[in-house]
Amino acid sequence: MSTEFQDIKSHITNLIQMNEEVFNLALGHFTLKHIKKGDYLVTEGTIAKHIAYIRKGLFRTFYLKDGNEVNTCFCMENSMTTSHESFVNKKASTEYIQALEDATIISLSHESLLSLYESNSEWVELSRLLTEVECARLTERIKALSFETAKEKYLHLLTSQPKVIQRVSIQHIASYIGVSRETLSRVRSQISQLQ
Amino acid sequence: MSTEFQDIKSHITNLIQMNEEVFNLALGHFTLKHIKKGDYLVTEGTIAKHIAYIRKGLFRTFYLKDGNEVNTCFCMENSMTTSHESFVNKKASTEYIQALEDATIISLSHESLLSLYESNSEWVELSRLLTEVECARLTERIKALSFETAKEKYLHLLTSQPKVIQRVSIQHIASYIGVSRETLSRVRSQISQLQ
DNA sequence: AGAATCAATTGACATATGTCACATTATTGC
DNA sequence: GCAATAATGTGACATATGTCAATTGATTCT
């Protein structure tokens, strides 16, 4: 097996016990892709036909609200991303997924996933687990939004996703936690003064 | 089949194509229970060992934050409720589920569900679908929390869950949408004046 | 039915945050 | 490397909302 699929293998076998042979049979369904910073994996109105395992890079998910972008997710190395509802239900996506850095992904189509379901039930179970992961992510986001003040929201993100704060611009973080970028800027300067 | 299980059967066969025989084999696992207003299905720190189909009544899910209750979900007739993460992962619940009205539920234990998994794979698929429903609920809640003003949040709930507003006290709704009950009270009087 | 408890309303006030405007600093592209 | 563009930081100000307190209205329980 080429080394480029080694990390997705670890990622999957970390979630679920899977025989090496079973995994290797899926290799033909995987496609390695390079995505340029600023490019989109998914856009509003289209159906997300692939799920992407991120080998390198960083993506944001956002939707448009009154013409403004609202970020809902940041995904980086060693995780999977897609417009979940669109991918699962084959319906038009309400959101965009954009690369914030040059990225390398391993792409798996919905068709491929269905044929893997047929070949081995472990792929069904993996799908169920990925839905559970999505639930956990949504729960985490609800928590992030439920904090009362901008400062609390930022400090929470600082501990729950420190790498996001290191790599994502302040305007995108502000949008994610639901405060204006000016307020977040003031919160940050206030915090750095205290230290 | 006694009539008391007719509605849960409709509910399940609405989600997934299921042979009548397959469903009937599960009947022995269902338990009918009556819950008094104010009583709890799940409390913080315990493991949610059952999932409940609600035949009658209304439940709220909440957690404690700095000693204050924060509502996260209202469930009523013809839907299922449990502390999802606790039930799925067999870990201590971080939330409470309380009856806001006298209720009748049909209860299914985690053990029973696992044995149904063995008997027929349609129950596995049902489980995945219930997780998708949970995802949709969480997404809806994120949307509710993402509106900017108290008025927008309330008006959204008014259209998305009108029955909740009819049956749930204002203090619980305020907690759900993340505003103080005083503010919600003012928002409501403002809205009724305009009409 | 009446007492007691709980829920909702309303007023006064302090404040966190959004918005606009502009200055400053980074980043990008040629 | 330099111009152009984008991102971030700050000040001034208006306002939506939380908090506290007091009142009114509704439920509950014996």
Describe what you observe in this structure.
The structure is a homodimer of 195-residue chains. Chain A is of the alpha+beta class. Chain A has two domains: 3-146, Jelly Rolls; 147-195. In chain A, 50% of the residues lie in helices and 23% in strands. Chain A has helices spanning 6-15, 20-26, 84-89, 110-119, 122-146, 150-160, 162-167, 170-177, 181-194, and strands at residues 31-35, 40-42, 50-56, 58-65, 68-76, 80-81, 96-99, 103-109. In chain A, strands 1-8-3-6 form a four-stranded antiparallel beta sheet. In chain A, strands 2-7-4-5 form a four-stranded antiparallel beta sheet. In chain A, strand 4 and strand 5 form a beta hairpin. The N and C termini of chain A lie far apart (49 Å). The mean pLDDT of chain A is 93. The interface between A and B is medium-sized, with 23 and 23 residues. Chain A binds a DNA duplex (30 and 30 nucleotides) through residues 148-150, 169-171, 179-183, 185-186, 188-189.
